[in-house]
Design brief:
Length: 119
């Protein structure tokens, strides 16, 4: 059940980011659901590898370089998902920052309404 909620929250966060960030477009909820799965897969594979390789640079930038990697992952995922488009690295970078904030807020809200981290 938690996986399903996280998937829906991620899709909703993508829709919010698409309304806030210029150059970031999601055609609808189904595209957002598919994009959330692809972004999750890309971040779990390629994103993890890049984060490990660039860890020293991330330390030097106090973690800000992770937004660069996340932006690149958004660009990469947009190449594979119809209805999900990120126009340029600037939109991807800003989208990664806004997506992190929106995801954190949504997860905080969902955690508060579902009783937190009960197992």
């Amino acid at each position: 059940m938690r996986l399903l909620v996280n998937w829906l929250v991620s899709a909703l966060a993508l829709l919010v980011v698409a309304h806030v960030v210029s150059g970031f477009h999601v055609s609808g909820f189904v595209a957002a659901l598919i994009a959330a799965v692809v972004i999750g897969f890309v971040n779990a594979t390629l994103g993890l590898l890049l984060k490990v390789i660039t860890f020293p640079l991330t330390l030097m930038t106090l973690g800000l370089f992770w937004f660069v990697i996340n932006g690149l992952m958004l660009l990469f995922a947009s190449a594979f998902v119809p209805g999900f488009e990120v126009r340029g690295f600037g939109a991807a970078f800003i989208g990664a920052i806004v997506l992190a904030i929106v995801n954190a807020l949504f997860r905080l809200i969902v955690g508060a309404t579902t009783g937190g981290n009960r197992r």
